Amino acid sequence: MPKKKLGIILIVAGLFILFNSLNLLNDDLFLYLLAATFIAVYFILGSVRHYHNIGFLIPGVVLLAIALNNDLNRFEKIDQLGGGIFFILLGVAFLSLLLHTQKFKKWDWPLYPGLALAIFGLVFLFFENSSLFQELAYLNYLIPAILIIGGIILLYFSSDQK
């Protein structure tokens, strides 16, 4: 990266940190501005023309997801849903990277963390808000039983192959 561009990036980052330290920016606005800066640098450097520009897009969309989560948690109904929303937003952030990677050979890697985080968030929402899982004492017996049964199945099928 040319020294001029790196210098501009360092100055902007330093100003953001200084404004935040002087309490001229609240934390949420700071996250939005920092995300916007990373995304702007991504576009300034040529966006999809160069694969390595994704290094600016990734922190931009992740910071945007964190800022959105902070804002959404201010709504009582969403805050009551729990932490699953955070993981869903992170999953969507990674899935949005497909807009960049679809033009290159290594296009599919954002699917893996994106889908994993989104599915984990949905499962987390279900477990956290389901009355079935509010009392988790029975999991002390259910999880070991599942592991033992899984081990028995593996041993049974591995003995057939010898």
List the helices and strands and how they pair.
Elements lengths: L2 H19 L5 H18 L9 H19 L3 H6 L2 H13 L1 H4 L9 H19 L9 H22 L2
Helix pairs in contact: 1-2, 2-3, 3-5, 5-7
Structural notes for this entry:
Keywords: Membrane, Transmembrane, Transmembrane helix. This is DUF5668 domain-containing protein. The structure is a single chain. By secondary structure, the chain is mainly alpha-helical. Helix content is 74%, strand content 0%. It has eight helices and no strands. It starts with a helix and ends with a helix.
List keywords for this structure.
membrane; mainly alpha; transmembrane; transmembrane helix; DUF5668 domain-containing protein; 162 residues
Quick recap of the structure?
With 162 residues, the protein is an all-alpha fold. It contains eight helices and no strands.
Number of alpha- plus pi-helical segments? 8
Mean pLDDT, to the nearest integer, reads: 82
**Total domain units:** 1
Structural class by helix and strand composition: mainly alpha
Major sheet characteristics: none
Based on Cα principal axes, name the global outline: flat
Radius of gyration: 22 Å
Work out the strand percent. Answer: under 5%
What is the CA–CA distance across the termini?
57 Å
Listing every helix as H and every strand as E from the N terminus to the C terminus, the arrangement reads HHHHHHHH
Spans where pLDDT lies below 50 across 5 or more residues: none
- How many strand segments? 0
Question: What is the share of helical residues?
Answer: over 70%
